[in-house]
Structures are given as structure tokens and as C-alpha cells.
Amino acid sequence: MNLFKIVLLIVMGTVFFVACGTSEETSRTGEGGDPSNEGEESAAEVIIEDLIFTLGTEIIGNELHIEMLLKNESDSDKELEFSSGQQYDIFIKDPEGNKLYHYAEEMMFTQALIYETIGSGETLIFEEVWESEEIHDLDYLEVEAQLLPSTIDGNIFDNEFQIVKTISSE
After folding, report:
1. Alpha-carbon distance 141 to 72, whole Å?
2. Tens digit of pLDDT for each residue in 84-127?
3. Does a structural domain hold residue 66?
4. How far apart are CA 144 and CA 158, in angstroms?
5. Is the entire prediction scored with pTM above 0.90?
6. How far apart are the first and last CA of the chain?
7. Residue 92 CA, distance from chain mean position
8. In the sheet that 161-168 helps form, which strands lie side by side, from edge to edge?
9. Which of 53, 105, 118, 126 is the most exposed place for a label (fewest CB within 10 A)?
10. Domain with 148 in it: what CATH number?
């Protein structure tokens, strides 16, 4: 009977941890990292410690496609440590500043350290899609994207990779 309880606890724990790590996010490391969009929207960027954080957006139908790129412009690899499964956050607001979307809201993230190594000249890419029937009813949207590393190359990271971008929704 005790063996049954132990197996049951292990199975339930595994299901819980797998469910906590589930999200629609994708991340990959690739060469280059051209943030060009097919639509008319442009990209915005922030540069910190030879890392270029770029936010690209494009509206396709009722979807806002968001692409966050972190390119390593240094001559050596960069190792980023994230303190949880949440590696970034996104907020979308209407012209009055009302929150329409918050990526992390109603999400559960693993409580595990995540390491990402970005080679020299390589780019780490995160993509999200927000769907809303209201996109075209608004004059513009404000998109705020943040990357959330706790350390870079073992050093505590106090700065923020944060971009706030206003885009036309017409």
C-alpha cells in the first residue's frame, strides 16, 4: 500500500511540474537575427553589454505577432541565467493605458533556473502571438516587452532589457 502512495505522489508531482512549464512561447538560437517584418511595422532596440534587444511587431488579421530578439555582438559567448521558466514578459495597452493583455497573467512557470548561451554573432529569439477581435477598433497599441535574465556571464544583471513601442492598429 505504501508503494502505491509513493508511485501516486511521483506521478502527480510529475504532472504538476510538466503543467507548470507549459506555454505557447518558443525560443531558439539562430544565426544573424534580422528583425525585419513583412508588414509596415518597424523594430525598436536597446543595447546593453554588447547584447542588442530588438522588438518587432506585425499585425496580421486579428493577430499581433511579437518577436523579441537578443543578439550577441561581442567576440565571446554570453550566458544568461533566468531565475524561473519566465524568460520574458509582454504587456499590451490601449490608447488610454488600459491593459488589454499581460503575457504572464494566468500562466504558471517552472521554478527552475534556465540557462541560455548565445554564441558570438548568434541571436536568441522569443515569439508570441496575441489574438483579439478588438485590434482594428483602436487607433494604436502600446506594446511593452521585457527580457528577464537574472545574471549575464555570472554577474548579477541590474539593468532591464525593456522596450515600449507604439504601433498603429489601422
Report:
1. 29
2. 999 999 999 999 999 999 999 988 898 899 999 999 999 999 99
3. yes
4. 18
5. no
6. 64
7. 13
8. 99-102, 88-93, 140-147, 161-168
9. 105
10. 2.60.40.2360
Residue type, 45: E
Task: Enter the DSSP assignment of 39.
Answer: S
For residue range 71-86, list pLDDT tens digits in order.
999 999 999 999 999 9
Q: Please give the distance of CA 158 from its chain centroid, rounded to a whole number.
A: 18
Asked whether the CA dihedral 31, 32, 34, 35 is positive or negative, the reply is: positive
Q: In the structure grid, which three cell numbers stand for residue 165, read together?
A: 513601442
Within a domain: 7: no
Do the domain assignments include residue 67? yes
Q: Residues of 47-81 as b/e, b for ≥16 C-beta within 10 angstroms?
A: eeeebbbbbbbbbeeeebbbbbbbbbeeeeebebb
In a domain, 115, yes or no: yes
d(CA 29, CA 74): 15
DSSP 60-98: ETTEEEEEEEEEE-SSS-EEEEESSS--EEEEEE-TT--
